[in-house]
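note to self: dont lose this again. the chain is below, predicted strucutre after it. 97 aa total, dont forget to put it in the shared folder this time
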Amino acid sequence: MQEKDMVNDVLGSLKSSLTNYGTVIGECEDQNLRQTLQQIRNECEHFHYQLFKVAEQKNYYKPAQKASDHQVQQLKSEVTQGNWNVGANTGRTTWNM
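---
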């Protein structure tokens, strides 16, 4: 297996793990466990970003085009106004734009 494939596989696994951490943290009632999971998630996010930067530098991964300032402001406005929701039983977030 090539290095590029391994890096992309790990990035994919980290994305999945981060999604799962978010779900578990959101449903965790035990505050000590919740804080521990948040710390683990934060470390996972940090590692994910570091690996992403390596992949980007080696041209293993090409991120999407940057959003314009207008697009960022529009999204912030939508979130602030509450015009978003999580799809029923899908866990997917939808934006009403």
